[in-house]
Amino acid sequence: MGVVGTDGGLNVRMSVIGTGYLGAVHAAVMAHLGHDVLGVDIDLARIDALTHGRPPFYEPEFADLLTAMVGTGRLRFSTSLKEAAQFADVHFLCVGTPQTAGSYAADLGPLTAVVDQMASLLGAKDLVVGKSTVPVGTAAQVSLRLRRPDGGSPIVMWNPEFLREGFAVADTLEPDRIVVGGQDPEGRRRLREIYAPMIAAGAGYIETDYETAELVKVAANSFLATKISFINAMAEVCEATGADVVTLADAIGADARIGSEFLRAGAGFGGGCLPKDIRAFIARADELGTGPSVKFLREIDAINTRARERVVAVASAMLGGEVAGRRIGVLGATFKPDSDDVRDSPALDVAARLHAAGAVVCIHDPRGLESAREAKPQLEYTYDVDKAFEDSDLVVHLTEWGDYRNLDVARLAAVTAQPVLLDARNALNVDAWRAGGWTVRSLGRPRR
Ligand code: UDX
Q: Whose Cα sits closest to atom 2 in ligand 1?
């Protein structure tokens, strides 16, 4: 794909409602394309931070882009939906759809609340574009909720987003495909206009119906989750047989039909998307009577939970079965590197389980400690990576931050009570650690 042009003078006036990882990055990238953008959120502190060019979360490249776009005057923020309706006639819905407490289903409450407020503010000139990940059937429901008795209803289109945290700016700016659901010719024309620079740069552009667009997103995330759980299931088998899951992943990934991405065995997947998206899909499929077709996703979820439990079990075994009172250093709190997001983080979950088993757990993370402390205040945290090693009986590597690849492992071995490492992400150079005096165990790899 080519380079997406900047400031193309496109000047479509749009609002982006919901300024989380998805909405804030989408808003800034739209301004980068030359559009006039108003980002809207009910969180006043978030809007205040964004207005002053301060990102409310860590995402590489985002701070620079945000500052630059706020500086152009093309990107502004507000808490007012009324202002959004007055300012723009294109409205992107980027509201979160988290898992409902006590259920697998997605919580559509926040999205519905926005749509219902917008209903009285929008008319025939308006285009509403859903980007949130939703259960299939939601776009049609949103369209119904926005229908006006006088016939002057806004157009509704659905345009799922595929960005990865840690690569959110690059993924939004240079998507491999743009999927647009909705049959309305005017809606399609306006979206092609909005995305013109990306289409010109070579992004795949797929126009389809609401239901296919909604399903593309959940199907993609289900497939990715399946790849990860598949390789973690293989890791369990490798562990039982003395085989090496890293070599196995390389070898099967060399087959282009399989592909080498998303075959990293370890503590499993987490974050705000994969776990809740497959659960929401299971719940929706049950409602539709197609539960048996996606029953395998329950096993994908179960393998993922088991991956976390296995880390705890292996850690315990490495401590001779005595976890209580032992000091464990944990490397990583976020669900993946280059993010400060700890939602459903395998690292934090494993740390909390070890703490619950009586261990004294000290967690280091380069970016995620504030959100980690908020989520699990009972745990001990440090910004100084050395502290995670000091007097430790075991160090568990749980999030593969680049920082952990450059540690002076020989020096760190000397500050531990015993230099024992569990690499639960299969991402460290274990030979270098062993050469530095460490006893190392990896998941799904032969023991030495
Ligand atoms: C995911 C999808 O990739 C993205 O397209 C969608 O828009 C949102 O959900 P994200 O949640 O940012 O993105 O993270 P991703 O990079 O997909 O990783 C998800 C989890 O899987 C992380 O916890 C990661 O550590 C884990 N993972 C990933 C593995 O355990 N092994 C792998 O091989 C790859």
A: 164
